Known about the structure:
Helix 4 links the parallel strand 2 and strand 3. The protein is α/β, with parallel strands linked by helices. A 6-stranded mixed sheet has the order 3-2-4-1-5-6. About 50% of the residues lie in helices and about 15% in strands. Helix 3 packs parallel to helix 4 and helix 7 crosses helix 8.
Amino acid sequence: MQEKILSRRKKSVEVKRKSVIDLRFKFLGALCTVLLAIGFLLPLNVASAEKTIIILARHGETEYNKTHRYQGALDIPLNENGIHQAELLAERLKNVPIDIFIASPMERAYVTTEKVAALHNRTVDYADNRLKEASYGDWAGKTFKEIEAEHPKEYLLQWKKRWAYTPPNGESLQSIQKRYRAVLDDVVKKYPGKVIFIGAHSAGNSAVICSLLNVPLKDRYNQIKQDNTCVNVLEYEDGKWEIRLMNSVDHLGYLYKGMKKAA
Length: 263
């Protein structure tokens, strides 16, 4: 009788041991499956992270630029020098592979973009209204000296604290920054891994660069200059932005506006 009881206990222990072993094998099998799946997916995720490059440029010179008038939302065309600048910019970029050409609908930026696209045997893919320059409202069309004489305190604020002062009936810098950033965010989603040329404007370019660097307008806006036909190269990869080049105008024969050309 005792032998039967011992035999049953042994069988029970053996069954339990086999059950534990089976459970361990099942667990290890499931774990291996998960690890293999992760190992399989990780390379795919790495491979799918594509670098998108945006060449963000300012338009060529206009008569309003030359004579120091507030231009903003006024649709002023390029002057003769501005057309020449745009042609020099196009020559500089003709061997750069560019997939998409986008422009502000304002003539000075659109024509600048057309010049660049033409040397790639392309046309402008589309204009985006969000890339328009900020409006200067009641100041538009007036010279800097006129506004300084008429509104000295406001004039000083506009130049020293552009992020905090908006001309009467004009557009705030925060507003233009928001719409420019929306354009760039849309572009990198729509054209991952592509090279995109965007022809735009000085205030919008400076403001959006602050946004990409994640710095307040009040801290850096006045320090980010944008000369006519300057080139900024922005790289986007895996949710992060890098500024690879900023306000480059060496195609005009000097490093930046105000620096004399070599004799």
